[in-house]
Amino acid sequence: MFYFLFFINLFLSLLVSTGKVSTLEAINGSTVLLPCTYSSCIGIKNLYFNWHYDDNGTMIKLCEAVIPIEGVEPRVFVYHERVEFVGSSKSNNISILLWNITFEDQGNYLCFARNEKEKFRNHTAIYTLLVVDQIKEVDKSLTVIIVSVLGGVIGLSIIFMVIKGLVVHFLLNDGEKNKECLVSSGNDNTENGHSGAKADNKGTPKA
Ligand SMILES: *[C@@H]1O[C@H](CO)[C@@H](O)[C@H](O)[C@H]1NC(C)=O
Ligand SMILES: *[C@@H]1O[C@H](CO)[C@@H](O)[C@H](O)[C@H]1NC(C)=O
Ligand SMILES: *[C@@H]1O[C@H](CO)[C@@H](O)[C@H](O)[C@H]1NC(C)=O
Ligand SMILES: *[C@@H]1O[C@H](CO)[C@@H](O)[C@H](O)[C@H]1NC(C)=O
Ligand SMILES: *[C@@H]1O[C@H](CO)[C@@H](O)[C@H](O)[C@H]1NC(C)=O
């Protein structure tokens, strides 16, 4: 029964994802893309999303917007001077750019989304940024190998789960034909993440 509920949820709910890699090393002074995408089989309506930076426990809101319906570009309110919204609702993309990073920008970035069609369930994907002096080549290739192996394993288990979910789904819903839908790979979805984060303005530039 638990599995049944879980897989039905997998099909109906919004997925928020940072993609295959959720940790990134970037060089001090560079500009990084903080990726986040969403997907939903039942479609979206008034999809609210925001980005927060977890500043040692204090949530700092970086930007927020509402996407009224699919394909309509959101009007994004940005509260951080080095943040730029680069997503597009045409590609379900709610990524942001963080310009000219410093060591103080290290930490967790939370991409939060809530779909009105889903009775306001919360979805959060977490992206971890590490700021380094320079990226060491050896470490980098090792990381890439580890990440791709991990990615393969995770990908396989997702495929397995989706197939299992499909089987369960169709066994238990024989009469009712749902439209098929593919969920893009994403491994970092957590539900009901933070709540009531303060909307602090991060107005001061960092030296
Ligand atoms: C980081 O980069 C900034 C701008 O490029 C530079 O001013 C600063 O000195 C650098 N910090 C360190 C610790 O290298
Ligand atoms: C983070 O918070 C803890 C306690 O909440 C404090 O001891 C620590 O110094 C803080 N670190 C930074 C970098 O602010
Ligand atoms: C990033 O740094 C460059 C060079 O210091 C500056 O020209 C640019 O305005 C900065 N961009 C932002 C968004 O702060
Ligand atoms: C989201 O948009 C940005 C900027 O256009 C792009 O660099 C990035 O690859 C896109 N991400 C996805 C998953 O499409
Ligand atoms: C979702 O998060 C909001 C705050 O962002 C909170 O008020 C609400 O209770 C949460 N909803 C659920 C179903 O957890």
From TrEMBL:
Q: Name one Pfam family in it.
A: V-set
Q: Membrane-crossing residues?
A: 142-163
Comp. bias intervals (Basic and acidic residues): 197-207
Q: Which domain of life is it from?
A: Eukaryota
Could you tell me which Gene3D superfamilies the record lists for this protein?
Immunoglobulins
Which terms does the UniProt entry file under GO BP? cardiac muscle cell action potential involved in contraction; regulation of ventricular cardiac muscle cell membrane repolarization
UniProt key word RNA-binding = no
Ranges of Polar residues composition bias in the record:
184-193
Q: Name one GO cellular component term.
A: voltage-gated sodium channel complex
Keyword list, A-Z: Disulfide bond, Glycoprotein, Immunoglobulin domain, Membrane, Signal, Transmembrane, Transmembrane helix
Residue segments, region Disordered: 183-207
Main location (coarse class): membrane
Q: Please report the stretch or stretches of sequence annotated as the Ig-like domain.
A: 19-128
Topology with regard to the membrane?
Answer: Single-pass type I membrane protein
Where does the record place it? Membrane
Q: Which residues form the signal peptide?
A: 1-23
The entry's protein name is Sodium voltage-gated channel beta subunit 4
Taxonomy, top ranks, is: Eukaryota, Metazoa, Chordata, Craniata, Vertebrata
